[in-house]
Amino acid sequence: MRHEIKVGTVSWISASTHPLSLTAETAVLEPPWIPKTYLGLAATKNNTPPKTITDFKTFQGSKDFRALTYCHISFDADDATGEVSGFKVHDAVHDGGWTPPFSMRNWPGTALALDPDILSNQWYQGEASPLSVVNTQARHKNSAIKSVPADETVLINGLIKFRAGKHTDDIGVKKVKSPFHVPWVWCEVLVTLAKGKVKLYGVGSMFPSHAWYLNGTQVKTVAEVSDKTFPLQLACMTFPPVLTSSPTTACLPTNQIMAPSLNLYKVLSAGASAVGAQPAASLDTGRSGTVETHPNTVGAGKAIQYP
What we know:
Helix content is 13%, strand content 35%. The chain is built from six helices and 15 strands. Strands 6, 7, 8, 9, 10 and 15 form a six-stranded antiparallel β-sheet that branches. The chain has a five-stranded antiparallel β-sheet with strand order 3-2-1-11-12, with no helix packed on it. Strands 4-5 form a two-stranded antiparallel ribbon. The longest helix has 11 residues, at 33-43. It has helices at residues 25-28, 33-43, 56-61, 116-119, 166-175, 265-268, and strands at residues 2-12, 67-77, 84-95, 98-99, 124-125, 127-128, 133-136, 153-163, 185-194, 197-204, 209-214, 217-222, 232-239, 248-257, 304-306.
């Protein structure tokens, strides 16, 4: 039987849940780089990718994603043995994505800063690791997908490892004063043939959000980790007994954020220390080991399978 398969992944920043309510919180809360980072992510978020993408090349031209992979193949499979022949790759692409312009729609107070990076309409290209590739009929050497039955035939195994580009990283380190460079994040897809049926496996870093497509239809998504509130340190005072026989204690929140308690902190702190330069992408050349174990790389989120 002749098969034709189109597979794709889209990674994007949703920022649908975040703890900021006012721009002024960036000037009140400590350390200020935390709320400023959330503001930057919320103001440069992507539109949610559509449920159907019939033309990945056209979607790629929109730049409205943090990373993208796509592969179009055809092959013959013997109905009795499952043996694959006549395998052909029609198209394959991986794209390290873009950082969109800063949107002031929900953050009008930022216009008062007169910052050219806030007022700019320019898109800034992201960076893909040299390990990013869409393999066909072979596993990716840095695959994070492990639980695949041995009797399934590998058709596609694509991995995109990506991070924001130098301009965005410089804003984070030099303007926002983040103690970390932007980390590496990633998304993987694996397609197999199992007893004549196509199966799709996927996993990605816990940030950003990821979607997997089969023949143009979005089959699975995994949302990025997020925070609804800032965990604040408490200041407590104990008062001597007056009307009661024992002392009483009252605690009120301070303006100090307990950064390590944030879900997003696990993502941000994976980046290299801002004390030195951002490690070059070329250092990934030939790197072994599963992608989530690499230096300055965010750990895995939820794995998916379809059907």
